[in-house]
Each structure stands twice: as structure tokens, then as C-alpha cells.
């Protein structure tokens, strides 16, 4: 035999949890990439302003490092 909670009780618990989890949360502005496939998987849809972000090249070659630096410069210029 299963026991189910009334919908109002579940709703109230969800509201209380949401308030506890986000009590001090404030809306963050983000810098979207403008590429839907990337923005869709980033929290908030882009890079958070005021956050620290690491950009690294994918390999050991200077081309990878240069590409990463160019990418970071492009983002910083926006």
C-alpha cells in the first residue's frame, strides 16, 4: 500500500527548499557566446560577469596557446 502526500504539502515543501537554496542568490549577468550550442550548456547562458574563468590551449603546441589567447582577447574585448 502506498501513501502519497497531498499536492499542497509537496508544493509547500518545494517552495521552502527553493527559498533555502537560493536565499542569498542574486541575479547574475552573463556574457553569452552567441552560439546556441555553447550558451545552452553554460549556467545562465554565458560566462558570468565578475567571475574568474580559465582559458587554456588544447595541446602543447604554440598554435593551441595562440588560439586560446586570441579567444580570450576576443571575449575580453566584448
Percentage of β-strand residues: 5-15%
* Unreliable residue runs: none
| Count of DSSP strands | 2
Helix content: 40-55%
Q: Termini, distance in Å?
A: 60 Å
Strands of the largest sheet, in order across it? 1-2
Main beta-sheet strand count, sense and barrel state: 2 strands, antiparallel
Q: What is the molecular shape?
A: elongated
C-alpha-based Rg, rounded: 21 Å
What's the structural domain tally?
1
Oligomer: single chain
Structural class: mainly alpha
Listing every helix as H and every strand as E from the N terminus to the C terminus, the arrangement reads HEHEH
DSSP helical segment count: 3
Textual characterization of the structure:
The structure is a single chain. This protein is mostly helical. The protein has one domain (7-77). Helices cover 45% and strands 5% of the residues. The chain has helices spanning 7-21, 36-39, 62-77, and strands at residues 30-31, 47-48. It has a two-stranded antiparallel sheet. It starts with 6 loop residues before the first helix and ends with a helix.
Q: Summed up, what is this model?
A:
Helix content is 45%, strand content 5%. With 78 residues, it is mainly alpha-helical.
Topology:
Layout: H1 7-21, E1 30-31, H2 36-39, E2 47-48, H3 62-77
Antiparallel strand pairs: 1-2
Amino acid at each position: 500500500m502506498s501513501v502519497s502526500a497531498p499536492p499542497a504539502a509537496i508544493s509547500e515543501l518545494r517552495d521552502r527548499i527553493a527559498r533555502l537554496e537560493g536565499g542569498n542568490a542574486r541575479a547574475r549577468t552573463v556574457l553569452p557566446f552567441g552560439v546556441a550550442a555553447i550558451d545552452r550548456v553554460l549556467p545562465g547562458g554565458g560566462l558570468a560577469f565578475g567571475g574568474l574563468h580559465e582559458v587554456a590551449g588544447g595541446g602543447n603546441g604554440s598554435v593551441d596557446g595562440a588560439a586560446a589567447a586570441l579567444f580570450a582577447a576576443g571575449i575580453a574585448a566584448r
